[in-house]
């Protein structure tokens, strides 16, 4: 099979999708987390500040989800169909939550009635939490494996998704995004909201550390296949090591009130955990619990070599552009958030 | 209760979600262009009035864009959730176009929209204008890739089929042939101009309403002129792209054209109906027609043969002939009406009589619905006319479903989306109305500046 720099094309495309999902986790992760924390802010001004801290960037962040979805469709169409149709109900709820989140942000500021704002605040927060939990649930099930038969058909039912491991991953994802979001917000705010957030950030970090420890143990005990790659490639042990060191650094920087550095580290830990997930799955994307031979590997699912080659070129041109816009946007809106007449 | 089949439910769900989605992107594409013109005029003249109207329309743009994105993501995921076999079949091609849309267009549009909305005090005028141009361009690129993906389904080229039966899939052999398949360019130009009409008529509608109510009159007249300049050119160009589209449909999808015109028998001289009714059982079409019109339209000659529906086996051609016929004819009638309306408005503007014609302002206030209806029915004609194929002559819609999704699941999601979208439409209309009622925030002296500028310019003209 054709290779570039020693890696075959499906592996390259696996890396591209992994990169896009990581980009999505790092970027939309903090605004979803900010949404999850929204109802902890009681004052109208605090809520507006929190909303406007993500105001100019949340839409651009969500684009990474759209691109990752398109990339999965294009690169591994078999997996796209199997995963999305298997998780039919969770994805439908996810879509509805995405709609509600988008319109909550957009509509909240349009009327000043108390009930109107209260309603959209709740809708914004609940949908942010729902999106995070549903993504975590899908992720958890992909790590755990699904009952997939030889014809790549799912043989379980809706209850299959709610196994304890997947639920734990869902909660861990929520704790990670809440921490990530809290650090972002504390970095972007001042005065009273800042004071409130310094407390929240500490609580979030405790919550996440607890989830992190539980997830690590559960993974080692219940889904040992996630560690197979480590036996062949001991150098990969650097990843969990980096994760642990990063976690300690987040704690240290939060205690020292160096929130910008803490934010960089929370970006790193989000990436690290997603990379660990990808390494654990590789070369499979969907693991069958019925029979390991029924798992769907990237080779079975990949598009044609020609298509992958064209898309790698598209990704090579497009990704720097997207990163460029993202940097431009964050640079334009750097510093503490201030309210003005164009704010939400 | 008898549960309809997964196929019917999935088709209804897809048709419903895409029809609803298709209200918004054309509006934002058209508005994007109007914004570029408005802000361009602001940069050129430095007049606060243009800044006021730009800021006003950016807010409306954001509202429309927001709903467009939220409902657009639904479409992307539905391919996988409801149409898994289709996803596998076309992933190589449709998937790459969709991925290209995300990475080349959508990312640009979303990032620069942040600057557009929140960047007035953060970046200078030039960068802001540049961002507006990027948002407008991004929305056009978005449409380009989506229409390419859709056009490939209509006229597939640049691929070969690998595998058999349910495992079969289309594999790219020639990327550029796939991108520039026979219908891409015509369908894109037709869709994009339809979008310019949708956006510009919204601008004119709001402006006309202000003029009728005698509110923000100077601002409204400036808006109206921007909208009209886009609309009149677009309406005329649409005649040309529409003609080309019909020509290519006759060449590559003759059964669709036959359904659009209600022709069952292949005829040596084919007439073109202005209005009519198709009886699919009796295979008869009655109505007012131009003799030889269709022959002329498709082959440039009044007595050239045109293929009828009966040339295609019944199982391979669209069943809802009257529906395709009616939607297609409504689109054409509206297209003609828009040309007449815009030309009349330009004529009256030139005679400096436009803004005191109350009746015409009333028509323009309502005319916002016309391009919307034309876009919707045109899309229905194109999509229903392609049936029973999802990928023309390659993959049947009935074979494209997800195998393991059940009717209960689709029914659940269909009900869910119906409820959410009704709520969404109600909120959209409520908030749009609120914004229109509120009107633009007017800077002090905007109107005096505006009068001064134009009076001075007139004085400076050589006599």
TrEMBL record, chain A:
Membrane topology annotation: Multi-pass membrane protein
Keyword annotations from UniProtKB, A to Z: Cell membrane, Electron transport, Heme, Iron, Membrane, Metal-binding, Transmembrane, Transmembrane helix, Transport
Main location: membrane
Segments passing through the bilayer: 12-41, 86-103, 124-144, 164-186, 207-227, 233-250, 262-282, 310-333
Highest taxon listed in the record's lineage: Bacteria
Any Pfam family: Cyt_bd_oxida_II
Localization: Cell membrane
InterPro entries (alphabetical): Cyt-d_oxidase_su2
Protein family per UniProt: Belongs to the cytochrome ubiquinol oxidase subunit 2 family.
Name this protein carries in UniProt: Cytochrome d ubiquinol oxidase subunit II
Lineage start: Bacteria, Pseudomonadati, Bacteroidota, Chitinophagia, Chitinophagales
Automatic annotation (TrEMBL), chain B:
Primary localization class, coarse: membrane
Top-level taxon of the source organism: Bacteria
Membrane topology (UniProt): Multi-pass membrane protein
Similarity comment: family membership: Belongs to the cytochrome ubiquinol oxidase subunit 1 family.
Record carries keyword Transport: yes
Keyword annotations: Cell inner membrane, Cell membrane, Electron transport, Heme, Iron, Membrane, Metal-binding, Transmembrane, Transmembrane helix, Transport
Transmembrane regions listed in the UniProt entry: 12-36, 56-77, 97-120, 127-148, 188-212, 224-241, 328-350, 362-382, 410-432
Name this polypeptide is given: Cytochrome ubiquinol oxidase subunit I
Record bears the keyword Iron: yes
InterPro entries: Cyt-d_ubiquinol_oxidase_su_1
Protein location: Cell inner membrane
């Amino acid at each position: 099979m054709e290779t570039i720099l020693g890696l075959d094309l499906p592996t390259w495309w696996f890396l591209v999708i992994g990169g896009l999902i990581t980009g999505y986790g790092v970027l939309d992760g903090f605004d979803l987390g900010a949404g999850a924390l929204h109802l902890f802010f009681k004052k109208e001004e605090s809520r507006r500040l929190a909303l406007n801290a993500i105001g100019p960037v949340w839409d651009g962040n969500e684009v990474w989800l759209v691109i990752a979805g398109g990339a999965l469709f294009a690169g591994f169409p078999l997996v796209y169909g199997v995963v999305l149709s298997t998780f039919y109900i969770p994805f439908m709820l996810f879509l509805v939550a995405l709609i509600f989140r988008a319109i909550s942000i957009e509509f909240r500021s349009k009327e000043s009635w108390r009930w109107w704002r209260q309603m959209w605040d709740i809708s914004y927060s609940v949908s942010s939490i729902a999106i995070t939990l549903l993504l975590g649930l899908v992720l958890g099930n992909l790590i755990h494996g699904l009952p997939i038969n030889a014809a790549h058909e799912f043989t379980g039912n809706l209850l299959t998704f709610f196994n304890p491991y997947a639920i734990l991953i869902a909660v861990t994802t929520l704790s990670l995004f809440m921490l990530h979001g809290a650090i972002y917000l504390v970095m972007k705010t001042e005065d009273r909201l800042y004071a409130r957030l310094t407390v929240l950030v500490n609580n979030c970090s405790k919550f996440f550390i607890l989830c992190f420890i539980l997830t690590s143990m559960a993974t080692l005990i219940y889904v040992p296949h996630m560690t197979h790659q480590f036996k062949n490639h001991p150098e990969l042990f650097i990843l969990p090591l980096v994760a642990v060191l990063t976690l300690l650094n987040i704690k240290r920087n939060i205690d020292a009130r160096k929130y910008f550095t803490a934010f960089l580290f929370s970006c790193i830990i989000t990436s690290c955990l997603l990379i660990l997930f990808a390494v654990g799955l590789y070369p499979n994307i969907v693991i069958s619990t019925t029979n390991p031979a029924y798992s769907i590997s990237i080779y079975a699912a990949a598009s044609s070599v020609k298509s992958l080659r064209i898309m790698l070129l598209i990704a090579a041109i497009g990704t720097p552009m997207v990163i460029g816009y993202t940097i431009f946007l964050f640079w334009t809106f750097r510093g503490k958030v201030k309210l003005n007449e164009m704010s939400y | 209760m008898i549960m309809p089949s997964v196929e019917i439910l999935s088709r209804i769900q897809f048709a419903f979600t895409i029809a609803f989605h298709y209200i918004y992107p054309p509006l934002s594409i058209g508005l994007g262009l109007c914004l570029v013109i408005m802000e361009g005029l602001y940069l050129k003249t430095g007049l606060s009035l243009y800044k006021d109207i730009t800021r006003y329309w950016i807010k409306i743009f954001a509202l429309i864009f927001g709903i467009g994105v939220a409902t657009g993501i639904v479409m992307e995921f539905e391919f996988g959730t409801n149409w898994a076999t289709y996803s596998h079949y076309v992933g190589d091609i449709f998937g790459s176009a969709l991925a290209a849309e995300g990475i080349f267009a959508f990312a640009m549009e979303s990032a620069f929209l942040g600057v557009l909305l929140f960047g007035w005090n953060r970046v200078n005028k030039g960068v802001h204008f540049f961002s507006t141009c990027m948002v407008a361009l991004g929305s056009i690129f978005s449409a380009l890739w989506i229409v390419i993906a859709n056009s490939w389904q209509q006229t597939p080229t640049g691929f070969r089929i690998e595998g058999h039966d349910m495992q079969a899939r289309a594999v790219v052999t020639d990327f550029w042939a796939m991108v520039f398949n026979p219908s891409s360019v015509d369908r894109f130009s037709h869709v994009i101009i339809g979008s310019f009409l949708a956006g510009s008529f919204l601008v004119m509608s709001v402006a006309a309403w202000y003029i009728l109510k005698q509110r923000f009159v100077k601002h409204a007249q400036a808006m109206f002129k921007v909208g009209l300049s886009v609309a009149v050119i677009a309406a005329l160009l649409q005649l040309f792209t529409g003609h080309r589209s019909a020509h290519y449909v006759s060449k590559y999808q003759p059964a669709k054209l036959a359904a659009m015109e209600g022709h069952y028998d292949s005829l040596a001289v084919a007439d073109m109906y202005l209005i009519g009714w198709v009886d699919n059982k009796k295979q008869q079409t009655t109505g007012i027609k131009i003799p030889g019109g269709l022959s002329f339209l498709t082959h440039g000659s009044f007595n050239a043969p045109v293929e009828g529906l009966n040339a295609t086996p019944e199982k391979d051609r669209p069943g809802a002939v009257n529906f395709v016929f009616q939607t297609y004819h409504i689109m054409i009638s509206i297209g003609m009406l828009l040309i007449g309306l815009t030309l009349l408005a330009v004529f009256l503007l030139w005679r400096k009589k436009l803004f005191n014609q109350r009746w015409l302002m009333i028509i323009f206030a309502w005319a916002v619905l016309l391009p919307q209806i034309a876009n919707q029915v045109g899309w229905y004609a194109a999509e229903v006319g392609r049936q029973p194929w999802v990928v023309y002559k390659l993959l049947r819609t009935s074979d494209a479903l997800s195998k393991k999704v059940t009717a209960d699941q689709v029914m659940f999601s269909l009900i869910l989306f119906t409820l959410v979208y009704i709520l969404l439409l109600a909120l959209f209309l409520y908030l749009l109305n609120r914004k229109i009622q509120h009107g633009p925030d007017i800077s002090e002296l905007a109107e005096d500046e505006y009068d001064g500028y134009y009076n001075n310019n007139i004085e400076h003209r050589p006599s």
